[in-house]
Structure formats: structure tokens, C-alpha cells
Amino acid sequence: MSSSVDKELESVVIRFAGDSGDGMQLTGTQFTNAAALFGNDLATFPDFPAEIRAPIGTLAGVSGFQIHFGSTKINTPGDMSDVLVVMNVAALKANLKGLVKGGVIIANSDGFDSKNMRLANVPEDQNPLTDGSLAEYDLKVIDVTKITRAALADSGLGTKEIDRCKNMFVLGLIYWMYHRSMDSSIEFIKSKFKKNEAVMTANLKVLQAGWSYGETTEMFANRYTVAPAKMNPGVYRSIMGNQAAALGLVSASVKSGLPLFYGTYPITPASDILHELSRHKNFNIKTFQAEDEIAAICSSIGASFGGNLAITGSSGPGIALKGEAIGLATMLELPLVIVNVQRAGPSTGLPTKTEQADLMQAYFGRNGECPVVILAAQSPVDCFNMAYEACRIALEHMIPVFFLSDGYIANGSEPWLFPQTKDLQDIKVEFAPERGNNDDKFMPYLRDEKLSRPWALPGTKGLEHRIGGLEKQNVTGNISYDPNNHEQMVLLRQEKLDRVADYIPLQTMDNGPETGDLLILGWGGTYGALKTATAILRGEGLNVSHAHLRYINPFPKNLGEILKGFKTVVVPELNNGQLVKIIRDKYFIDAIPYNKIQGLPFMSTEVVNKIKEILA
Amino acid sequence: METIEKLTSKDFASDQEVRWCPGCGDYSILKQVQTVLPDLGRPKEEFVFISGIGCSSRFPYYMDTFGMHSIHGRATAIATGLKATRPELSVWIITGDGDSMSIGGNHFIHMLRRNPDVNVLLFNNQIYGLTKGQYSPTSEQGKVTKSSPIGSVDYPFNPIALALGADATFVARTLDRDPKHQQAVIKRGYEHKGTSMVEIYQNCNVFNDGAFEVYTEKGTKKENILLMENGKPLIFGANDDKGIMLDGFKPIIVNLADVSANDLWIHDETDLVKATILSRFYDDPTHPDHKPRPFGVFYVNSNKNTFDELFNNQMDAAMAKGLGDLDKLIAGNETWVVN
């Protein structure tokens, strides 16, 4: 029996890494669920290659999943991992630099044989498990493949199927190390393989074998406990960003009383929104997988004309194709939500890696003067809020709205103190009423106090009218080539967008006072890293505040006031400086850009160092 | 049953001045559509005309119905989204050869394969008119235009063959200069459940004048037009003196002096193979052995479910038990409580 000693930790970062086919994403999400159910706060970061099955054993094929869980507030998946699980030498090579010195390495020795060494381009005589190069780490070598095969020798399964259970051994062992209940994973396996009992039994057996291995060997001197976090009371669930976005859209549909139409074309990392929505037809959710990105948005425009809550979703390359149709929606002044789950570009770029480089595309990426409302989610959970907001604004203002997410928060997960639908803000929609023969002629571009025009559905008596991409006369909507009318219409469309500022919340400070030496002004998915960095900086006595923008066009009305209150404003972004240009232009302040363009999120330590450098 | 006030063609004319060039074939098509619609027995608010870009695409502005003049090539996609969500509407797509065969080619074929119950009027003038005269994807090879001063090297698309290849369920051809034929074909297209694709030969008297004159002028038309009528033999010629026979899969022209009309090819709209052969009667009319150009309905398939039906059947089945419980959906399967 193991004589391990329990140690209490505040938080832990574990990184699971292996070949794309090793099931590391599944292992990670299973552990995430267990940690969430236990009551830890957490954040996760799946990091996988664009290829579904890159060449086995190579660096290009390494797939990773990082989870940061703790008994305190967790804002990010962690800068460095404390524990690194590697299924082969390529996974070690790719991830060692992200492991803290002295950290634990759990290595599957079978993945370090001569074939794997060759595939990972590691010279035969430099096997890291034996050459002493890992001396400053706590190295645990286990032949996971051999144990798994032994455990399933009598299972009747083939070697290939048996080897696919290896990840369950690792999961069982990590459950043992952190005193986690395996119940949620047992339930998961039972349900996932209910049609294949042999595979179900095998997975359960190997999961148990992993646990028992920790229990019976002398390899592990310590087991760890991480107490539940002190979180706001209430009922929680775990959620990923794309899933949250989909639920936000469904909620807006239900609350507005309108059927939802989602016209889209598959693209990484946005497709999961389609997958989620397509399962919820019983909420009057219609999904349409179009022949291309242009048809996706155009079908949505058709659905919006017909009175649906219309949404199109994509990532940067697809948004580029939708540009002309976004312009059309702006001219038609119909409600439309455009979801962009950003990924690293330009062109195909790094499809599975995160970036915030589509802000200018959202702002300016169309011909002519074509302002579009822009909202950005700051965390996986916030995808729910901002997707909902995007629908609310689109419907209430008859205007296209961009909802920006990114690959990092789209695939990341965190606990969610989810709302009750009765507490969600109402969404008020009115269609133009039918008219009789004695009524005045219907005016499709007659505006209300928000400057929005009536939503007049085909099929409504007396509302026959034509809309289109040609410039139109205000009020009547007839084609007009009048020079002054065109200028008036351009200004009206801008003013209509500007007035949205009267219907969104004022900017708040996330941390620190509204005046001071330095303001960290962020937007989108960098929220967690900036929040942690600000807490560290303030903890060290520095006069630093953090505000995070979620409403980017128009900005909250008080943003200018806030910016004036600081000697220095720093704008960290995962791009080559986009928001910072808009801020400088609009508020005439010498905001300092801080950029990272590596397809990876910020580490809080990087931000801390950069801010200190600026303050020095 | 509620009686619908009988509408007239005037009821379908909007108050906007029609701005096509004088003599344009589009006028005739507008007139025929405005003539047909009152006979369909539907209130006018149920009609929606969606167009792309091009001369023909100004059409919706002149109709006092719901309409959208959208962007180049995309009317098909917009109409698909509208019809999917509002299947009770009568949705019409107005497009041209550039709009549907070139920039919108992808949406065109995908709409046909899906088969939403919409009506396509494809104004084919074999030229880019709105951009002032460049060769189009249906222009004949060798066409001299502003953008092809020594002749275009591109082979033309055959819209009828393309539509049949994309599994269209209603494929027909008519022409601007024959109002009665046009009205009859448009009406049949409307009555078809599924996408009806009606190609209309339309003269652009400014940039491609006379493109179809062999099919419209008294002296030549009877020799060059094959009017297809379901269940009737394929007969043409100045004195109705010629017919088409099939020798295996090979169509041959015969003289009715030698062959009885009963032995001719009897047109069968439901026969895809024969419709495909007819669609390939696409020779250059100046070629000595050319076959006459067929007009009328090539093919009808009434057995294919429409996209809007299938799409909404799934919705109806999912919604049969009423709207889902949103609070349950948001909570998901696994929750925990923090006190």
C-alpha cells in the first residue's frame, strides 16, 4: 500500500499532452468536470493542432489540454504548469518549457522508444528519461501502454482498441493524486459506450487500474487536496465559450419570442456553435448549413426579412467573404448578428490558435461608410452574456451587430453561476401592423427615437415595399441618387449606431480606482490574464487599474472620462495594435500598445513585467 | 372560404418609374408577370420578389409586392433563407445570366439541388448590360465585346443543361417576344411544387441586339423553334413539316412527308433522360445541321420533397411537444451548489 502523504494546495495547473490520437482533450475535459463538480474554480485551455491526425509521434501532432483549478478565484488556465503528463517524447519536447522548475512529469515510457525518439527528432542517445536532463524535475516514469495491455489481456479486444484506453489510466492516476471522485467519469464512460459493452468495461477497468496504480506503488510520495473555492453561492455548471454563446443565442430567441435562424458554414473554431444549436430545434432553433459563407449570411438576411432572429457565424476568413452582405444588411437596416470566433490570421493563418486581429475587420472591413455595432466577450461564460446582448441590440435597433469571441475563450471552460431566464433582460420586438386601403402609404424608412425603421414582414397586408442595396431616400425607402440625401443617409446610419450608446451599460473598472498612474485597457479574451496581472501589480503597491471593454462600437459613453483619469493608458492585445489605434483616434490620448501575436494567450507574468517596465 | 378581391395587373405595378432602356426585353417580362399574378388568386402581400444585381434585378422595384434588390448573385441564397422560415409566402427570384450563371453560380446549383418551392425567372440576354457590354457566361464563343475585342475564348454555359445536371425539378425556356408562351410557362412554374427554373431569352437591344432574332423573327422562327408540349410529338418547321425522332439515344430530324407524326418523339416532361437530350439541342443556329432550339417545359419532377417542407418537417417534429424548457437547457446535465 502506498504511504503517500496528503498535502493541501491552493491551486494546481496540470497539462495533459500526447499525440492527437491519444485522447488528451477527453482526459482533460473529464478531469475538468470532476474538478468543477467538486467545487473548485477553474479555467481550461485546449491547445491542439489544426490537423485531425497529424503524423503520429511528431511534434506537429502534439495535442495539449491545460487545466488550472483551485480553492481561490481562478482567472486563467495558468502561465506554467505544475504537473505535465506526457504520452510520448514529442509531447515532452513541446511542453517542457511550460513546466515550472521542480514540477512533476508523468511520462509514458512506451512513448520514448526508439521509434518515437526518431519521430520527434531526438537523437537515440539523448532519451530524456535516462540521460539526466530532467534532473531538476520530479520525474515519474510509467509504462502506461504495458500496464493497459496487461489489464485488458483477457478483454478480447484488439491491440489497437486496447491502446485507445491508455488515456483512462492517466485519468485514473490523476484522480487518485488529487483525491477526486471518479463517479462523473464512470457515468460518462457508461453512457458513451452503452452500445459497446466490451469497450465500456475496458475503459472502466483501465480507469480503475490508474487509480490503483497510485494507491499501490511507492512512486508517489504525496497526494494533494485542493479545497473547493469560496465562490458566490448558487447553482453552478461548467461551460465552454462556444456552448455559452449558443445558449445565449437560444435564450435571446426565447426571450424575444422569435424563432432563431442560424445560417452558417463549417469553420474552425466556430463550428461548435452550429453543433450546439442544431441539437435544440425544440426551442424553435433553425440551423442551415449553407453551401458557402456568403450563402450562410445571405440566407440569414432572408430569414431576418421574414421576421426571424437571424444569426450567421464564422471565423475571420469566412467573415471576409461575408463583407458585402454585411453592407447589404446595413443598408436594409434589418437585425442581424454576425458571430466571429477569431483565430490567428491572415488568410488561413493558424486555424486552431487564438488571436484578436479581426477587430479592424469588424470596424472597417466593408466598402463605403458602413458602421456596425461590435461587442466582445471576455471569458467563456461571458460568451453567453454578450451573444444575448448582440441579439438584443440587433433586434431593438434594427441593426447588424458583430459578436466577437476568440478561439481561446471559445474552447476554454469555467464554472458558471448560470442565470434564471426570468432574470434576463427583456427583448422588445414589434412588427409593423397591417394597414388598410384608407391608411397612408407605408413608409419603410420612417424612423423612431432610436433612428431605427419599422420591421415590416412580407405577408402583412398593406406593407408591400421594396428594400435593397441601392441608396435610398430617407422615410420612403425609394431609390435616390440625390447627393444630399446620400450624405444624410450615411450620417443617419452612423447616428443610429451612436445612439446605441444610450442603451448599453457604462464602463466599469474591473479592479482599481477610476484615476491613477496606469490603466490597463483590455478587450475580449485577454480578460483573465489582465485581471490576474492587475491583482499582482496592485498587490505590490503599484497604482494600476484595469478596465475591460465588452462594448466596442459604440464605446460606453463614459470611456473618455475614465481614460482622462490616468497618466498612462496601456492597451494589451493579441494583435499588432488594433483597439489602441481606435482609442488614440477617438480620444486623442497617447495610449501605449502592448502586443503579442503568437497564437497564444497572454501569460499574466508577461503582462506584469511589461507594466513594470512601462512604469519604471 | 374568404373571398379574395380580384386584383388586376395594375395592382402589381409600383409607383416607381420603370428605367430600362426603351425597347428592352425586360418590359415584356414585367408585363407578363403583372398579368399572370392576378390570376393566381393570392393576396398581393404574399408575393416576394428577390433579385441580385444587373439590369433584370431592378425588377422588384417595379412590382407593388414585397421585394428585395440584393447583391450580385445572392438572391438565390436570400430566397432560400426566406422560404425556409416563411414557407407560406410565394417567393420569386429575378436573376440574369451574369447574376445566376457567373457570380452566383454556386448558390444557383445548390438551390436547385435543395429544391425550395421558389420560382426563378432567369433573364438571359447573353451579355453584361448594366456594366455596358462585356461577354457573359452564356455569350457564344468568339463574341466580340468591349472586354473581348478579338472575340471571347470562353465556351458558354447551357443554363438548361446546367439546371438538369443540378437536379432541378422544373426546367423550362421561354422568350420575351412571345407573351402568351411566357405567361403560360411562368404560370406552370408557379404551380410547380419545388424550384421552378424558367430561362427567358431576353433581347438587350443596346449591347446584344438580335441575339435571339432567329427565334423571334417571322422569316426564321418556325424553322428554328421547337415548341415542346407534353404528350405531343416534337414538330417544327416553316410549315410544321419536320419532326424529331429518336434513333436509340440519338435525335434525328425527319421530314413529315416521310414519317407519320405518330412515330415521332412524343414529348414526356417527366423523362429526365429525354429532357437531357433536348437540353443539348444547343447548336449554333448558323450551323448547317443544327437542331431547332426547344422552348416550353423540358422537365418536371413532382416527386421530390421541397427543401422548405423537409426543413420544417424536422422543426415541427422537434416542436411537437411544445417549446423546450430554457432553464433546464441552461442548467445542463451536471450542476453543483455552492453555499
How far is the N terminus from the C terminus of chain B?
A: 62 Å
Q: Could you tell me the radius of gyration of chain A in angstroms?
A: 27 Å
Strand element count of chain A: 22
Q: State the distance separating the first and last CA atoms of chain A.
A: 55 Å
**CATH superfamily heading of the domain at 9-211 and 305-311 in chain B:** Thiamin diphosphate (ThDP)-binding fold, Pyr/PP domains
Biggest interface between protein chains, with counts per chain? A-B, 72 and 58 residues
Structure description:
The complex is a heterodimer of chains A (616) and B (339). Chain A is 36% helix and 22% strand. Chain A is of the alpha/beta class and 616 residues long. In chain A, the strands form 5 sheets. A 7-stranded mixed β-sheet of chain A has the order 11-10-12-13-15-14-20, with helices on both faces. Chain A has a 6-stranded mixed β-sheet with strand order 3-4-2-5-6-7, sandwiched between helices. In chain A, strand 10, helix 10 (271-278) and strand 11 (285-289) form a beta-alpha-beta unit. The mean pLDDT of chain A is 96. With 339 residues, chain B is an alpha/beta fold. Chain B has a domain at 9-211 and 305-311: Rossmann fold (3-Layer(aba) Sandwich), CATH 3.40.50.970. In chain B, 29% of the residues lie in helices and 19% in strands. Chain B has 11 helices and 12 strands. In chain B, a hairpin with a 2-residue loop joins strand 9 and strand 10. At the A-B interface, helix 1, strand 9, helix 9, helix 11 and helix 12 of A face strand 2, helix 2, helix 4, helix 10 and helix 11 of B. Strand 17 of chain A pairs parallel with strand 2 (66-69) of chain B, so a sheet runs across the interface.
